[in-house]
Amino acid sequence: MAIKAIALDIDGTLTNDRKVVTPRTKMALLAAQDAGVKLILASGRPVQGLRAIASELALSEHGGLLVAFNGAHVVDAQTDEVLYDQPIDSDTMRELIGHVRDFDVIPWITRGGELFVERSSRHVIRYRDEDLDIVEHECRMCDLVPCEVDDLLEACATPQDKLLCAAEPEYLQERWRSMAEPFDGRLSAMFTADFYFEFMAPGVDKGRALAGALPKLGIDASEVVAFGDGQNDVSMIKWAGVGVAMGNAIDEAKAAADMVTTSNNEDGIALALDEILG
Description:
The chain is an alpha/beta fold. The chain contains 10 helices and 16 strands. The strands form 3 sheets. It has an 8-stranded mixed β-sheet. A 6-stranded mixed β-sheet has the order 10-7-6-11-13-12, with helices on both faces. A two-stranded antiparallel sheet has the order 8-9. The longest helix has 12 residues.
């Protein structure tokens, strides 16, 4: 069956380690769109954090989609029409924030173009033997404005798409189960980077978001190629007709994939599309 859509994780997949879409990969994706294939950016980032790359790849001109917050929110890149939305309700979010305060993590919420973080929260984590201002990093990567509040609960008057918790990778590996256990069956929880552990509404993942949004556009799973590298990409790699793991992907993603391409630094997407699309 002909391929009608390509779903792409961003960090570690679409962009290389310098957070750049390489010329060869960009050319391959623009050519696919010119041939009538729809592009879908599927990321843990908020919508605001997808817009620059969506513009670079001309998604609005070709009717592409933005899958944000690991699948909690899907919008049409051209019209901003919301095609799918599954936030965490306010009561559960407030309970969750109270719980994660028992851990040495930095929790925040993003809404629109703002990142809400508590004024008393630390902003720096130790990463790869260097200090990293993780709040500044997230704001820069996703084009967000930091908004410090006395109490993060102030930002929870309405349902939220996710709660992100940042900390040193070693700390999260030791404690993620304790962080997630009280909400087992009530929320989805996963790593989106080794220093990010995130909570979404129950059942939220990239695969389910695609399954909810694409049939409205007349696209079947068998007509989709999905590329990813991390734990939050496994669901869409499994769901797509052709699931592709990057050469730098975690073992879980590679095991779920139909094929493994080269890394995000070696134009793995372009090489795989040469083989799949011909």
